[in-house]
Fold each of these.
Amino acid sequence: MKKIEAIIRKSKFDAVKKALHETDVNFFSYWDVTGVGNEKRGRVYRGVSYSTTDIQRRMISVVVSDEFLERTIQVILEAAHTGSVGDGKVFVSTVEEAYRIRTKESGGDSLI
Amino acid sequence: MEVNAVLDLMWIVVCGILVFFMQAGFTLVEVGFTRAKNTGNIIMKNLMDLAIGSLGFWLIGYTIMYGEDVGSFIGVPEFFYSVRDDMHNLFFQTVFCATAATIVSGAIAERTKFSTYLIFSLIITTVIYPISGHWVWQGDGWLTSLGFIDFAGSTVVHSVGGWAALVAATLVGPRIGKYVDGKSTAIPGHNMLYGALGVFILWLGWFGFNPGSELAISGDSANNVAGIVITTNLAAAAGAATSLFLTWMKYGRADISMTLNGALAGLVGITAGCAAVSPGGAAIIGVISGIVVVFSIEFIDQVLKIDDPVGAISVHGVVGAVGTLCVGLFATDGGLFYGGGFGQLGVQAIGVVAIGAWAMITAFIVLFILKKTLGLRVTEKEELEGLDMHEHGIDSYPEFGSNLDK
């Protein structure tokens, strides 16, 4: 089992969600994240200019069995892509075990 | 009661109700232009200065302002004013008084002690505002005798609040993080929608503030009232449009909060002369107000380094003064641009300076004493974590995660 964590553009979230569903990855979590990067945005508030390095993105976290791994990654790489700087990143890590609380199933069965 | 008298009384009551609702506008503007962690504190200040002002003005303020004149300076105070056929005037003047008090709240938002603010509210509504108001509106005051024109209170109401706010914001000092290495930093407000709704409500309420100050609607007053509605609306529109284009040119973006301030500036600017100028004059006063407010906000923030989160000092104090002076220029009867010479302008200037000095000196005395006794400011920890938690024990947006800034 692997955990895939993808930081993507918020504007690409719907496309990624649809693509994941189409490839039968139906369960995942997401949340909004704020990151810091090289980019600076100049702003003016009431006559005072200031700049912010804050970047708003969305993080998706999905745990899949090994057989789903490759296509899930490919689907995200494809659907979240614009080609401009700031498209985001995908991280993959190993998950030791997973359980479904209702049935007490474990392993790959608990994921679908 | 005779029909015309009933109409006049009804008009005063209806307009008083509109002015009352301006308190909601002030609350929204102030909440919108500040941070979420202080929302509840701002609600409480705006609610309670209305409540305390209503009590204080009835207790003694109204008669200090409108009681029998003593030396052209002050009315004879009487406790608990309750002349039955004058209750409409008490109501109308009470909501004006509360307006002056609430202006101060915005300039000192996010760092001022709630208890101290309540005491100051009581003093401004029972002493500071009624005495200078007496000079202009009681009929026998010394500024009335000079011929000073402040129809609905650019100076009597708005400047008094604005200058008191200037003193208060100076004495209480800037918010933590506002000036870093001597440079002004931006502390964006947390909800532009609240700010905008507040301005819409204030604009609406001003149709009670200015046209209501005719204090009648029967007979010839009907056309005067209609004329004042138009001068009020045109000045607000011109103020907003001017601030919009000015900030658009200066900052490269159509600035929301400054444009909102521009609309308010137009309204404050026309308040003194709304019955004395033509629609064209009103539009020009709006343009002047819209320009003045932008430069004034930047000057106070960046040069004087006085932290005024909502721009109250500029909108009400500075533009109130400018609007009052504009009567001397644009009054169709006696204004400089209408061949009236400098006489009216000179009188206007005397009124602006006298009432400005009165408001600043009295506010300074009161606030300085409060600073040395109770203290004006919350502690650093309270300010950083938000006044909602420390002054009121609740988070105003509990479902949206804690606002605690640790």
Amino acid sequence: MGRTLFSVDVGGTFTDVVMVRDGAIHVTKVPSNAAATHLPVIEGARRLGVQDAAVFNHASTKGLNAVLTRSLPKIGFVTTQGHRDMLDAGRCMRPMNNQTDARWHRPFGDAARPLVRRYLRRGIVERILSSGEVLIGLDEAQARAEFEILRRCGVTGLAICLINSFVNPVHEQRLLQLAAEVFGARFPVSASCQVGPRAKEYPRASTTVIDVMMKLIYGDYAQVLDSQLQAAGFAGQLNFADCTAALIPWRDAVSAPHRILFAGPAAGAAACRGLGEALGDGNLIGCDVGGTSTDVTVLVNGSPFVNDSFEIEHDLLVNTLSTEVASVGAGGGSIVSVTPSGDLRVGPHSAGATPGPACYGRGGTRPTVTDACLLMGILDPDGFADGQIRLDPEAAQRAFASLDCRMSQAERVRFSWKIALNNIAEEISRCALRHGLDTRDFSLMAFGAAGPMLLAGVLELVKARRLIVPPHPGLFSAIGLLSTDFVYANSRSQYLMLTPDTGAQVEAIFGALESQLRERLQVGSDGADVVIRRSFDGRLAGQSWETPFINVDADALAARGPAALIEEFHAEYARRNGTSFAQIPVQGVTWRVQLIVPTEKLSWRPLRSGSGAPAPVGHRTLRHLGPQQITAPVYPRAILGAGDRISGPALITEPLATTLIIPGQVAQIGAVGEIVITETP
Amino acid sequence: MNGNALRDLDGAAFAQAYGCSRFDATVLGNRFRYLLDHVSERLLACAFSPVLKDFYDFAATLTGPPHIGYPTPVVSKSQLAFTGTMTESIRNTIEEYGVERLGAGDVIIANDPYRTGTHVNDMLFIRPVFHDGRLCGFVNLKAHQLDMGGSVAGGFSAHKFSVYENGLVLSPRALMKGGSAVNESWTLIFDNARFGELLRLDMQTIIACLDLGESLLLDSIARYGEAAVLGAMRYVVDADAERMAEAIATLPDGCWQGAALVDCDAVDDSEEFPIRCTIRKHGSRIEVDLSGTARQARGAINGTYLDAKTTVGIALKYLLDPGGPFTSGCYRPIDILIPDGAILSALPPEGVVFAYGEPTNALLIAIFAALAVPLGTRAVGGDISAPNLHSAVGRRADGSPWVSIVAGGQHGPWGATDAGDADSYCSFYQVNGMDTPIEAHEAEIPVVFMRRDYVTDSPGPGTHRGGAAVCKDTYWLEPVDHHLFTLRFKQATGIGVNGGHDGTTGGVWLWPAAQPARIHGTGEGDFTQATGVAGRLDPASGAPRPNAPWVYFGRQRWHTEPFATLRHMTNSGGGWGDPLGRSPTKVLEDVRDGYISIDGALQDYGVVIEGDAECDPEGLTLDEAATRAARAARA
Amino acid sequence: MHNFPRPTTPTVSAARTPVPGNCPECGAQALARYRVMSEGGWWQVTKCGQCLHSVSREPGPLLGAFVPLGAP
């Protein structure tokens, strides 16, 4: 048996805590506390007993929520004179859904809610060319004067991002020294050349701003969490997960904290990958159906798509590796409304956690998908959220009755349900099509509180191979934090057209990145368990965007030079997009090295065998699924064993989720306890 | 129309009218939207062209079959300027080609602006969809091609004086027949257009996208039946028509006029080109009459009747129904009178159509101005309203040419609304695209962006202020020929509304070669060493000033030696509401943030602020007594 | 391409031909016949200038004033 492993996923409503001890999974949910995020974490740790844990892997939305609510520290931003408005302009584009809406504002713009007010964005006299040559020398006296102004304004941190500093960081480095002189050596400062010397000034600047803000937000939090965990008897390693769910020891994490902004959805993808490995199924579409939205991730051969940046709000970018997650406003709390023409619409607005669906009885009066599920008989009024919330069917009835349209109550409920399923199905199709993939080659993985009750209906619409409901679907993302490795990363941009004679340059770039990383981590080149992964972001000549993470095989590079990179680029381009332009030259833009330290992961234990045909513990009436109401047997998940088969209609219940199997479908319990639902041919 | 006519249909009446249940119509309406999302996603993922990826310079639509009148129940969320043209252009193309000649697996193309709107680079691809041998609709893509031949690579030039210079004109013809390539159509394009290899790959991608759209439409027909699908098309269009009619009905009845100006054309400054509209509204009907608009211009800055139609639709969407869908039905309550041979309804061979954005931007502002009165608080201020095109051309040391097209004034402010102050860095109202990062551009072109920031005291004053003018200074490291056309500096385009004030007008300047490099200021006294290239410029200081003499950009060719500086300053956005209604605290914040100067605060807002905004931004103080006095004196 | 000369006047206007009679909807003596662009393309309409009621709407030429030389 392995060591005891702990993970925690701090969400907006609940803090999910998972422990694996002696191979068995233990879980608990603690209500989150926005004012003191660490308290529910400690509470969960105490409940399950953290004293013998070897690791404590942590993901939270704390940083993300601080940005979304603009509960942010006051910082200064300095850049090359003439360019301070880059933080207002972003990349210029507005959302496609707001194209004819003059009332739409860039959410981080000066006319809305800027992260840094314009007067705290200051220009420094200096200029470096794209070649790295200094066009205008740094005016130190002027820079000092600007720092003094910021100091008088009481900023608590400083972000520095100069134009072309990714080519030549000399002015940023000097500004770091001057800042230490003016603000003091311990003052939180982030400079873009350290945060990530990547081309394109706006995303690099916004990343730098977020980085210093996260230093202020996470620095103390991590310290407090670590000491309180120790007080609770924890003697292992506290790690934070990044936006790909890769793990970072907490001290490293808080030195470049833009990476740990938002790890939850990536952890969901990691959980899919981990379970997929156990099941021998790598082509998965993960559907995390929560209260407000459905997050969709696509995994091909066990790997999710990874992007080179993360978008916090529209166009508010952070340069960090992030698992690609598409979100559609369809979840349990999605509100049902009526359009002016008298048609039903589901979402994108959500009743959220407060007031929540009408049936929660917390003041919500508008009908939601959860209300529909209750009226359909899928949900048990007394068995929701482990009995923590009692559902009120009368309130749900009233909410649907209040809709102003000419439809019967039954139609309202049935259509709401079907429209919600259609919305989710279309988003799943879109995610697949975006990468030129066909949903028929994939298994759907249903998790999140509402996933197991909705996805069976989606299976039929998207024609996926099968639907898998994992064990503990309500805490699946936290489980994903026990399925990843430590990853240390280093990257920089340098525009380089790949030609046969650029091999030495490419080698030099990778060599420098790698030795910096080894130096920082004090890892020798003989570290047996360490995996070094090189990759680059490249583009076709003439394109303005990059295709990230073209894998670089060091041996192939040594043997065949840049031709190996070019070939791999075209192959990856085809994999991502379904097309290839092999005759067009390839330019390298950003170069990356990752140092991966494998760590102990959750291994799924086989479930005891079942009888094959389990006996239901009761029956429930399902309405509105079809023209007639039907009776469905109910099976507690805990009594099911591997190999058990259940034909739809049926319900499988567990404390935090209900799985619906609709008529015409068959569920089979798999080797590790997963429920596998397929359409009967 | 009687209020919520569609809403009041019960199940039986609905089924009678549309051949399907209301639920099926709702689901199919969603499916139509997703169908185009899927087609667009596929195009974005697979096409090579940055024009498509960064500027979304394409649109996809779904069109119903001829026997139900070619309804367009859904357009993709991409290039707005294409949307209004597409219903007519599908019908025009199919009718001219011949409905009876269509077969499954065909792709019909056309790009003639007089038949299909916008410009020759925007090729229309139409896939007729057959079910059981019956034509049941069309899946369409209009996408900007990198080149379509003609005298100028890429096509963007005002200096094309007849259609014979403009580029290859394709009347309706088959590109694919029954799934097979029609070789003479492909070769016609490749023999006339540049970058044929890339065009071919992009066109193949487009055809694959049409295949996808067709299969998705056939899926829907298989699942819901042809009658339901066609019924849902009609329903969605009817619902949008009703929605627009209801939006129009919210205006008081009346007649209003608006105007805007295209300053000149690329030939000389002898003629200006006013765009005028008269809008009559009664009940839920509206009529937009473009009589009094200038005749077509010399050179390729004209648009067609389909562009005029699109712009009227976009303007009314902005003003009356911003969140709504954009189907062919939204035009049902709208009649547009368009005189022939106007700058917005040019005709061949001299009425060359390419930079149609110049007159359509002006038309949008004319409509915003006309409806500002009846809209009152719902009015929307004017924007930058111009592409301010500039291309810089030079040669590298090895003789190879380079072209830069992002050093002009492409991006700038919007106007204010009841929702608040306006953003300052946007595409003009009718388009939406990605900006090129400075660092990415400098890595390719011998240019240094010395400044790209906002101009103090430029935002149109108002209770909510307009967006600020953008000042973009570029320092060129090598000899450069500058090709620019700036056609919107004579009058403020950032019109103020609801008592708000107009924004400022911009300009273009050149500073002679100078080393070492330095960053030029933007104050009144900072222009004396510069040559005024365009704009209303004070003869003594060279700075932009309202009512100062207007300077014509086309009076000479603009060539600069290494180390010269070019400045593009855009127009600014219009204000909303009386500036005296802006809270003094907000004005103080604007002064602190450098959007307004201390002098500007007093002059434009009657707010008295003391201190040093630059060096002690948090030490600024508001003199409340003096502010009350200053505001009382103006009230 | 047919040859459409550039108009000789600096501005151009859409022609409206007055039509005798009263509007059946509002009674005003303000009927006129003219060409408009609307849903479905060009229309030749007879409308009331007061209440904008359409007395008649007939489809107009597909391409408006433009008639391609080779068109069928």
